[in-house]
Amino acid sequence: MLTFEALFELLRKEKINPELQKLEEDFYNHALDYFEEKGAIIHTEKTTDSIFSMDAKRTQLQLDNARKILKEFYEKRENKIINLAMLSSRANIKETGINMLNEEKRLYNDILEHLNNYRQGILHNILTGRKVSIKANSPPKDIKTKQSQSSECKMVRFLHSVPKFVGDDLKVYGPFEQEDMSYLPQKTANLLINRKRVEEIKIENTQN
Question: Please, what sign has the CA dihedral across residues 189, 190, 194, 200?
């Protein structure tokens, strides 16, 4: 079970080490369990005797801080993966994805594919005396299928800017700007759709 102290220690190590640190493959599921547990505790403390009101405030503060830590932790790893993909593209190599979670390997491969595509279409073409020509991106591969099966998510496009908010899964989302796209829990997505804040993006399966 993930704890606040363990999460803080993971962030500390990620900040001081240039390489990605090794995580349990289901790390983000543990993080979700932690947030759900804290949310349930807060709900209980708020709905019982008022003597627990201070406990609820302390638990809420810890939960808010844990979300900030996870966000910073994610972004530290995200920056490392982006830089790794950039270096891989420039050196024309592909890393094996050591210490990357499955989701992070997918992120690395997607970024590398885009960087290689533009490097080939712009730089290589110009250096070899050809016009700039960038291949169209391939359609998303089973992203919607996998996420909808595991968490009943919807892909949406934001019609207006929206500040950060907590979804019905107790995870923090946003902030989002107009035209941003993201997967959101189904109930949260439907609520925003009804309020005309977003529109659903339907991804057709193009596989034969």
Answer: positive
Fold category of 143-200 in CATH: Ribosomal Protein L9; domain 1 (3.40.5)
Give the Å distances, CA to CA, from 133 to 19, 136, 195, 201: 35, 9, 41, 28
- Three-point CA angle 24, 40, 200, nearest 5°: 75
Asked if 23 and 9 count as a contact pair (C-beta separation under 8 A), the reply is: no
| Strand, coil or helix: 183 | strand
CATH class name, domain 4-127 = mainly alpha
The 10 Å Cβ neighbour count of residue 31 is 20
How many beta carbons lie within 10 A of that of residue 123, not counting itself?
11
- Distance from C-alpha of 195 to C-alpha of 177, rounded to nearest angstrom: 16
One-letter amino acid at 53 equals S
Q: Which residues pair with 184 in a beta bridge?
A: 154
Return the SS3 of 83: helix
Q: Where are the domains of the chain?
A: 4-127, 143-200
Beta-bridge partner residues of 198: 158
CA distance linking residue 200 with residue 154, whole number of Å: 7
Average pLDDT over residues 108-130: 91
Cα maximum dimension of the chain: 77
18-43 per-position pLDDT tens digit: 999 999 989 999 999 999 998 888 88
